[in-house]
Amino acid sequence: MREIKIEIDEETLRRFQELPDVKDSHPGWQPTPEQDALLLRFWPIKTHRSVAKALGVSYNTALRRYRELAGEKNETD
Q1: 2 backbone dihedrals φ, ψ, rounded to 5°
Q2: What is the pTM of this model?
Q3: Hey, how many other C-beta atoms are within 10 angstroms of the C-beta on 31?
Q4: What pLDDT is recorded for position 74?
């Protein structure tokens, strides 16, 4: 990643450093059978981002898992 050399004031830098970390930054999310059932049941009928948030994962992680469970192909397949 290219580093950009721009001065950032300390207060702004501190605020960004205090932001929450990504919850699923590693590929090791192992959903429980209950989470899989909830995902299959509610993904088609509820707001996708809300379902992902309720499961504690990112939208992309939930979408990938839903596609696995539903037998859909990913766009990269």
Answers
A1: -75, 135
A2: 0.60
A3: 18
A4: 55
| Domain residue extents for the chain | 31-77
> What is the Cα–Cα distance from 3 to 55, expressed in whole angstroms?
34
Residue 51's contacts (CB-CB under 8 Å, 6 or more residues apart) are 38, 39, 42, 43, 62
Compute the distance between CA of residue 34 and CA of residue 15 in angstroms, rounded to an integer: 36
| Amino acid in the structure at residue 68 | E
Q: Which of 39, 26, 25 is nearest to 68 (CA)?
A: 39
Asked if residue 31 lies in contact with residue 51, where contact means CB atoms within 8 angstroms, the answer is no
DSSP letters spanning 26-61: SS-----HHHHHHHHHHTTTS-HHHHHHHHTS-HHH
Non-local CB neighbours of 23 within 8 Å, separated by 6+ positions: 56, 57, 58
